[in-house]
Each structure stands twice: as structure tokens, then as C-alpha cells.
């Protein structure tokens, strides 16, 4: 599933990270990162001419990109580095066997990803090679380094380093052995077991905590803007981490309620209010999270053109179903084969319904989502006990059966 531009005429991604309202600490970090480099990013005349047309005068990041360097913050061997290691292209080519086909992991909007092994650090890594034909690649490259270098959280993928040699642009991440959430939800290959209920709730709670860090803990706060199943990577024990921060944007600060920007995102995950107005808020991410959570619950894709027209858009299909709890059992992923807690399903659907509310002010804050999902994921489902507790769960879930309707009515 690709990214889109608000006009629908281009699939290229375009974004700006900083604006005049960014706090001073971020601006200092940005300028420190951009000055006096021994690792200059060279650009040809074609890029220069295109850049003049594309870059807004008040886009500080774009103005600084032409002088991009990272030597103040990055060391060659990773020792005493504040941000990330600097690799040569030869090192990364060697790590992937010259980007052999059997090392290929996948391809996204920014380029191809390969598995590699770094001998000097003795570790497996994932290496993303940016598409050299994309004029916006340089900006996304910088945004990714800035965001991940200043973000430290167990539910955000770790950036190990980068390569900015001549025209090459590569990013090196920790290797996530289980791949993306998308690979464990949709079109499972033969022999792969579907995720059980407890694992799905664990993944949702972890992804929410990563988003909470971006919204509430980072200074300045960051809007992810590209939350989707393919960007949630899974490590051992299905530990989830958010990845791919090329669309990340500094959120509104102070009395500002939104950031005005060109609409970018993935169809099916993008909040309707942002798509229509270009006004980006933290609640835009909440909507995207709600779509991902619905995918976890239902096993359906955000957009599935193979289904009947009325069921192709997941949110459009789910919204009328939310209104009657008798529909809930029809919404759950059939691959679970009935192995889920009835009460837990009701609560999960209530959370998802609130996140995908059409009006952004009706959606909960990420801190409330984390609180709810931490509780939900702590209630471990034991299928061996389900026969004895199903009647009790049905009775106790009556307390929750009108939660969606009450939320819509009261506006909370």
C-alpha cells in the first residue's frame, strides 16, 4: 500500500520537519547537526534546480540540508557518538554480500531493505538503501536520522548508523527477526500460525507506548504520521517497535492546535480531517492507531479491494458494526477460531471505535489509550478456562456493551 499526496496526482512523499514554532532545544540540535561537516551530502545540478522550486523559504530543515553534515555528532567507529555511526558504502556492501538477492527483506516507499552482518560490531542489521531517483529522499534521510537519534525508547526501532557517501544514502537499523506486523496478520504463508489474542494485545499496547513517547515525552513532541502495520516491526517474543520515520513532523507547540502541511500518508490509515484540511494534529496519529488496532482485532486490511465494495474500507465497514454488540463476534478475526475473551473483545472494539471517530476532538489522547491497553494486555486469556468463564464474561461485559454509543453521545 503506497503513500499519497493530497491531490492524488503524485505518490512521492514530501515533508518538512521543523517550523518557526519548534522549541529552541530542537533548533540548537538541528543547527549543531548541520554545521562544519566532513561528511557533506553532495547534490547534482538536477537536484539543485528542483530544490529551488520545492523548498519553502521558511522550511529551516530544507535550508540546512544543503550544508548537511554529521561529524560533530557521529564517530566513525560508534565510540562516544551521540547519535549514530558513520559507515562507508563499501562496509555496507560487504555486510550484505553486495546487496545479494537472498539478503533482500522487502521494499517500501523510500527504497529496498536488506539483511546484513557487521563484522566490526558482530551484529545482524537491517540496511535500507534509499531510492536515488527520489528528489525527496535527502529530506527523509535527514528526518529519519534526527528523529531516531534523539529518540530512545524500547518500542522505537534503534538506528545504528548511516552512509552518506557521494550520492549513496543508506540507513542501518537493528535487525528485527520477526519482520513486520503486516506479515503476521495478512496473507499468512503455509505453516505460519496466526497471532493469538494475547499476542495481539501485547503488540497493540507496545505500539501505543511508542507513540506515547513521541507525543508526550520527546521535546519537542513529534507526530509520527505514518503509523501502519508494515511500519510496526517485531522482535523476539513479538516485541513491537515503530519504524520508518521519514514522514515524522514536529507537532504543534504552545497555544497552537495543529501544523499545516501538505497531506502525506498511506490510504486507509490517514485521518479524514487531516486529508481534507492539511491540518496535522496528534489526533491524526490516534486515528491511524485505531485502524491498526482494528486490523489486529479483525484480521482485515485497512483497504482490501478484493472484498465487496461495502467492506473494502475497514473503518467504513466497522463503524455501523460498532453500534450493536451483537455484531462484535462477527468482527473478530476468524483465524482466532473463537479463542478470545468476550469481555476483552468488547473493550478492544470500544477503544478502536473511539480512536477512529470522524471528529478529531472525539478521539482519546494517547496516554488514555496506553492506560486502557496496558490493562487489556495484562488480562491474559487462557483458552483452557474459557468454557467455564464464558457465561461470567458475557454477564460482566454487559457493563461495557454501550461504551461506544455512550462515548459518541457524550463526546468524550
Automatic annotation (TrEMBL):
Taxonomically, which superkingdom?
Eukaryota
Which GO BP terms, alphabetically? Answer: pollen tube guidance
Domain named Protein kinase: residues: 99-376
* One Gene Ontology CC term in the entry: plasma membrane
Q: Does the keyword Transferase apply?
A: yes
- Key word S-adenosyl-L-methionine present: no
Q: Where is this region: Disordered?
A: 383-412
Query: Mind listing the GO molecular function terms for this protein?
Result: ATP binding; protein serine/threonine kinase activity
Residues that bind ATP: 128
Name its cellular compartments: Cell membrane
| Annotated keywords | ATP-binding, Cell membrane, Kinase, Lipoprotein, Membrane, Nucleotide-binding, Serine/threonine-protein kinase, Transferase
Gene3D superfamilies found in the cross-reference section: Phosphorylase Kinase, domain 1, Transferase(Phosphotransferase) domain 1
Membrane topology note: Lipid-anchor
- Signal peptide (from-to): none
Matching Pfam families, A to Z? Answer: Pkinase (PF00069)
Similarity field? Belongs to the protein kinase superfamily. Ser/Thr protein kinase family.
Per its record, how is this protein called by name?
Probable serine/threonine-protein kinase PBL5 isoform X1
Q: What is the source species?
A: Durio zibethinus (Durian)
Amino acid at each position: 500500500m503506497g503513500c499519497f499526496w493530497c491531490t492524488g496526482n503524485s505518490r512521492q512523499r514530501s515533508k518538512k520537519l521543523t517550523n518557526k514554532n519548534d522549541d529552541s532545544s530542537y533548533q540548537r540540535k538541528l543547527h549543531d547537526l548541520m554545521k562544519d561537516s566532513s561528511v557533506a551530502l553532495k547534490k547534482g545540478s538536477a537536484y539543485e534546480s528542483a530544490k529551488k522550486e520545492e523548498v519553502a523559504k521558511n522550511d529551516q530543515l530544507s535550508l540546512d540540508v544543503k550544508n548537511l553534515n554529521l561529524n560533530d555528532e557521529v564517530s566513525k567507529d560508534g565510540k562516544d557518538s551521540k547519535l549514530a555511526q558513520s559507515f562507508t558504502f563499501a562496509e555496507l556492501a560487504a555486510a550484505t554480500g553486495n546487496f545479494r538477492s537472498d539478503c533482500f527483506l522487502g521494499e517500501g516507499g523510500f527504497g529496498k531493505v536488506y539483511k546484513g552482518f557487521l563484522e566490526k560490531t558482530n551484529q545482524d542489521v537491517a540496511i535500507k538503501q534509499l531510492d536515488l531517483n527520489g528528489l525527496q529522499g535527502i529530506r527523509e534521510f535527514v528526518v529519519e536520522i534526527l528523529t531516531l537519534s534523539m529518540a530512545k525508547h524500547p518500542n522505537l526501532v534503534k538506528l545504528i548508523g548511516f552512509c552518506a557517501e557521494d550520492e549513496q544514502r543508506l540507513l542501518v537499523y537493528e535487525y528485527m527477526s520477526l519482520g513486520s506486523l503486516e506479515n503476521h496478520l495478512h496473507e499468512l504463508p503455509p505453516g505460519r500460525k496466526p497471532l493469538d489474542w494475547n499476542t495481539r494485545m501485547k503488540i497493540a499496547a507496545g505500539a501505543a507506548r511508542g507513540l506515547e513517547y513521541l507525543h508526550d515525552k520527546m521535546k519537542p513532541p513529534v507526530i509520527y504520521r505514518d503509523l501502519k502495520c508494515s511500519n510496526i516491526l517485531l522482535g523476539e517474543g513479538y516485541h513491537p517497535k515503530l519504524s520508518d520515520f521519514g514522514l515524522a513532523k514536529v507537532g504543534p507547540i504552545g497555544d497552537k492546535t495543529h501544523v499545516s502541511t501538505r497531506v502525506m500518508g498511506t490510504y486507509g490509515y490517514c485521518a479524514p480531517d487531516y486529508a481534507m484540511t492539511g491540518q496535522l494534529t496528534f489526533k491524526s496519529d490516534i486515528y491511524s492507531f485505531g485502524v491498526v488496532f482494528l486490523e489486529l482485532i479483525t484480521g482485515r486490511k485497512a483497504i482490501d479491494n478484493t472484498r465487496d465494495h461495502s467492506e473494502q474500507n475497514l473503518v467504513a465497514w466497522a463503524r455501523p458494526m460498532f453500534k450493536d454488540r451483537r455484531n462484535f463476534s462477527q468482527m473478530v478475526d476468524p483465524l482466532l477460531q473463537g479463542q478470545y475473551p468476550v469481555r476483552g473483545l468488547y473493550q478492544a472494539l470500544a477503544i478502536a471505535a473511539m480512536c477512529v471517530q470522524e471528529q478529531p476532538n472525539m478521539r482519546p489522547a494517547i496516554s488514555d489509550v496506553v492506560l486502557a491497553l496496558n490493562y487489556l494486555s495484562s488480562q491474559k486469556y487462557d483458552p483452557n478456562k474459557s468454557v467455564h468463564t464464558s457465561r461470567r464474561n458475557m454477564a460482566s461485559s454487559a457493563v461495557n456493551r454501550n461504551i461506544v454509543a455512550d462515548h459518541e453521545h457524550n463526546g468524550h
